[in-house]
Specification:
By secondary structure, the protein is of the alpha/beta class. The chain is built from 8 helices and 7 strands; from the N terminus they run ααβαβαββαβαβααβ.
Length: 234
């Protein structure tokens, strides 16, 4: 199985736009979101789809007990070396964790690559303690061949709520996605029509439906429910 973040052109583009973090916006956007999450130091936080371990390292810096999971053997050793945190092979829909054993879940740029993203959301809910936190981030609007990537931000929020999550906040970062896509094109990766979704007008015609990079902060509904009012698009 080939993983997008193992592609050399993608990795080179990621380094130019986001350092060691292979996603739009890099570690800066992740740090901003983690501060908004407000999880207490010492919390057990798992990074599902940890890749090369950039976010794992950030979680450790925030004082969390961080643990990573990924299906790519090539990434796991790199993740541990880069972060100093444990990382192991596991499917997002079948995590080797007991029910209610995790304080928070981070999942960045993974959901849209899954054939059945709803199974992963159900698994996140299962392993979280009541009131446990979720930081989800992904590309929306257009990802060829993947169902979740074609959903709008509001639809992702509805999917989360359907699975029992309380969406506290959603954040839209279209410019971060444009910057990474431009680097991929510049390095010869080609966008295969993706440039149109990013509002690149090469022939003067109106652009297609815009794609973006979004983050969602949510929590598992339960005994320790989060805030009584949803806060979106702040």
């Amino acid at each position: 199985m080939n993983f997008p973040y193992e592609d050399p052109i993608f990795r080179q583009a990621a380094r130019k736009t986001s350092g060691s973090a292979m996603r739009p916006g890099g570690p800066e956007l992740t740090c901003q979101a983690l501060r908004k999450c407000g999880w207490p130091a010492g919390s057990l936080v798992i990074d599902v789809g940890c890749g090369a371990g950039a976010t794992l390292g950030l979680l450790a810096e925030f004082g969390f007990k961080a643990r990573g999971f990924d299906l790519s053997p090539a990434m796991l050793a790199e993740a541990e070396a880069n972060s100093g945190c444990p990382a192991e092979k596991a499917d997002a829909a079948r995590l080797p964790l007991a029910d209610g054993s995790v304080d928070a879940v981070v999942c960045e740029c993974l959901l849209s690559t899954l054939a059945e993203p709803d199974l992963a959301l159900a698994e996140f809910y299962r392993v979280l303690v009541p009131g446990g936190g979720l930081l989800l981030a992904d590309v929306i609007g257009f990802i060829p061949g993947h169902s979740a990537g074609n959903a709008a931000a509001a639809e992702i929020s509805r999917q989360l709520e359907k699975r029992g999550f309380y969406v506290r906040q959603s954040m839209d970062h279209p410019d971060a996605l444009k910057a990474m896509a431009a680097q991929v094109a510049w390095l010869g990766g080609g966008l295969g029509g993706f440039d149109c979704r990013l509002d690149f007008r090469r022939d003067g015609r109106p652009a297609c439906k815009r794609a973006s990079y979004c983050q969602w902060i949510a929590c598992k509904s339960g005994e320790y429910a989060c805030k009584s009012e949803k806060i979106k698009d702040l």
